[in-house]
Design brief:
Layout lengths: L22 E6 L3 H14 L2 E6 L2 H10 L4 E5 L1 E2 L2 E2 H8 L7 E5 L4 H9 L4 E4 L4 H16 L9 E3 L2 E4 L4 E4 L2 E4 L2 H12 L4 E3 H9 L8 H14 L9 E4 L3 E4 L2
Parallel strand pairs: 1-2, 1-3, 3-6, 6-7
Antiparallel strand pairs: 4-5, 8-9, 9-10, 10-11, 12-14, 13-14
Length: 248
């Protein structure tokens, strides 16, 4: 069992961040004690309407019944891998997914981000840190960012701006919020060389402090969805030691 740390007292409004406003959250976590602690903290902050699923069956039933603004997903679940659940959810869901896990090895974290995760938090963690991560992905999801007025095409693909789905003929390719924003950014700057740091600051609205692995992970994942051969890309080209250039 991997327990979460007990919540810290942060006073009204949590850890000094923005108070949430009516966000619906799906918590997929099999440990009952961890669920109780997380629910206690989220209720204390206020503004989060949280649904709990203890296994994959309950999780799939929950997403069929309602829409969620955010999913907190444990990786170690009974009988299945949380990353596999993420892959299935990404086929129909666009909302941000934050992984919460005892596993802190680089291979697991990179795989989780490649398979559709928007963020990763290692247990045990302080609850103000969780709150900050939740607020960050929700801000990215709901902020008013310039977006194209019409669908955008490249090669055999058509990006539906309204549905946040990439179409290839009749095939629907589902993107995470981060992947969608990243692809729109590339399409709006076709032919331009975009620096790694420039991309990080645009997507995450803060400096990378030298850790650009999350950019590399999301680009690798996006390449898997649009490139015939991700190791020899046609669209997202790497400019060595500088950044990426979209050639579509």
């Amino acid at each position: 069992m991997c327990n979460l740390q007990a919540p810290l007292h942060t006073g009204p409004g949590g850890a000094g961040g923005l108070r949430p406003s009516g966000y619906s959250v799906l918590l997929i976590e099999d440990d009952l004690e961890n669920c109780d602690i997380l629910l206690h903290y989220l209720n204390k902050i206020g503004g989060y309407d949280t649904t709990v699923a203890h296994d994959v069956t309950e999780a799939y039933a929950a997403v069929k019944q309602r829409q969620f603004d955010l999913i907190l997903l444990d990786i170690m679940l009974p009988g299945t891998d949380g990353i596999d659940i993420c892959v299935q959810l990404r086929k129909t869901l666009y909302c941000p997914i934050i992984f919460i896990s005892c596993l802190d090895d680089e291979e697991t974290i990179v795989r989780a981000m490649r398979m559709g995760g928007d963020d990763y938090l290692t247990k045990p963690f302080r609850y103000p840190v969780l709150q900050a991560h939740m607020e960050a992905v929700l801000r990215r999801m709901h902020r008013h960012t310039p977006s194209p007025a019409e669908d955008m095409g490249f090669g055999p693909f058509l990006l539906s701006v309204r549905e946040h789905v990439l179409m290839r003929g009749q095939e629907r390719i589902y993107l995470s919020p981060t992947e969608f924003e990243l692809l729109v950014y590339f399409l709006n700057h076709r032919g331009e060389t975009l620096g790694f740091e420039e991309i990080y600051r645009y997507i995450w609205k803060k400096p990378s402090l030298g850790d650009l692995r999350t950019v590399f992970s999301h680009v690798r994942n996006l390449r898997k969805k649009i490139e015939e051969n991700p190791s020899d890309p046609e669209y997202i080209l790497t400019v060595p030691r500088v950044g990426y250039r979209f050639a579509g």
